[in-house]
Design a protein that fits this description.
This protein is of the alpha/beta class. About 45% of the residues lie in helices and about 15% in strands. The protein starts with 7 loop residues before the first helix and ends with a strand. The mean pLDDT is about 90.
C-alpha cells in the first residue's frame, strides 16, 4: 500500500462484508452494516448510480462476497468462543476496516485494541465519524514499515492492554502480504504481549509444495497485485504446527475456507469458492 493512502484490499474486504446484505437468507451468515461505507470511490459511485444489485451481477463478485461471509463467520465464532470462556481483551492486528467492536454485541464488556497503519486508521476513523458511528475500540497507530515490531507490546500497554491477562489476537487478511521476516517479527511481538491461554486467530494462504494454483486463483493473485498489495507469503498446512510451536504457539484448529463453505453455503457458491480461493483460518493457543 502507498504511504499516504488506506489499504485498497481492506476497502474491497469491507465492501464485500457489507454487501453480504444482497445474499439470500440461507447464505447470509455474517452481517456488517458498516462495511459498505468503506468501499472505494469507484464502488461508492456504482452504488449511488445503479444500486447494490449491480455489484452482485459483476463476474466473480458474488463469489467474493460469499467467501468473505465464510471467513468472517469463522473469525466471529472464534471471538464468541473466547468471550464465552471469560476473555475480555481483543487485539486486531492490521485491523483495516474491521468493525467487530461496533457490530458484535458479544464485545460489549470486552476491550478491543485496533493496530494499523496511520493512513488506513485515519480513513477508518474519519468514515465512522462521517456516518455517525462511535467505535469503543482503542486505536494504536502503527507504521509497520518504520517501527520495530518488538515495540508493539509497550505501545499496547500504553493504550491499556494488560499482558498478564489473556488476549485474542485477530490477524485477518494480513499474513499473505508480508515477508517471512515480517511474519517472524510479528509472531514474536504477539507472543510477548500474550499471556498463557491467549489465542491467535489468523488467516493465511495455503501453499502446498508442488501444487499449482488454479487459473481462477492466479487471477485473484493478479488482481490484488494490481492494487499494489501482492501476495508474498503462505504456509504448507502440514508445516504450520511446527512453525507455530517454535514461536510459542500450539495449533488448536486449522480450517480450509472452501471446506467450511461446503458446510455453510449452498453447493453452487461453495463450489465457486473452492475454485478461486485457497484461504485458511488457523486458531493457535499461547503456551
Amino acid at each position: 500500500m502507498r504511504e499516504d493512502t488506506p489499504s485498497r484490499t481492506a476497502q474491497w474486504v469491507a465492501a464485500a462484508r457489507g454487501l453480504g446484505m444482497l445474499l439470500p437468507d440461507d447464505v447470509r451468515i455474517a452481517d456488517d452494516p458498516y462495511g459498505v461505507a468503506f468501499a472505494s470511490t469507484r464502488v461508492q459511485k456504482l452504488l449511488q448510480e445503479h444500486g447494490p444489485t449491480v455489484l452482485a451481477r459483476m463476474p466473480g463478485f458474488k463469489q467474493w462476497i460469499a467467501y468473505m461471509q465464510v471467513r468472517t463467520k469463522l473469525l466471529d465464532d472464534a471471538v464468541r468462543n473466547f468471550v464465552d470462556a471469560g476473555g475480555h481483551q481483543i487485539v486486531l492486528l492490521g485491523a483495516g476496516f474491521d468493525c467487530r467492536a461496533l457490530r458484535m454485541p458479544e464485545l460489549a464488556e470486552a476491550q478491543v485494541y485496533e493496530v494499523d497503519h496511520p493512513a488506513t486508521q485515519a480513513h477508518k476513523r474519519g468514515t465512522l465519524e462521517r456516518i455517525g458511528a462511535h467505535s469503543p475500540a482503542r486505536y494504536v497507530t502503527w507504521d509497520f514499515e518504520t517501527r520495530a515490531m518488538d515495540e508493539l507490546p509497550d505501545a499496547l500497554a500504553e493504550a491499556g492492554h494488560d499482558a498478564t491477562e489473556a488476549s485474542l489476537t485477530i490477524w485477518e487478511g494480513v499474513t499473505m502480504y508480508l515477508t517471512e521476516a515480517a511474519i517472524d517479527a510479528s509472531l514474536g511481538a504477539i507472543a510477548t504481549y500474550s499471556a498463557a491461554t491467549s489465542q491467535l486467530a489468523m488467516t493465511y494462504q495455503a501453499k502446498v509444495p508442488g501444487e499449482k494454483p488454479s487459473l481462477a486463483a492466479r487471477m485473484v493473485q493478479l488482481a490484488v497485485a494490481r492494487l499494489g498489495e501482492p501476495f508474498r507469503w503462505g504456509w504448507d498446512p502440514a508445516a504450520l504446527p511446527a512453525y507455530l510451536e517454535e514461536r510459542g504457539f500450539a495449533l488448536a484448529d486449522d480450517v480450509s475456507t472452501p471446506e467450511a463453505a461446503q458446510a455453510l453455503l449452498p453447493p453452487d457458491l461453495a463450489g465457486a469458492i473452492s475454485r478461486t480461493h485457497h484461504g485458511r483460518v488457523a486458531l493457535a493457543e499461547r503456551v
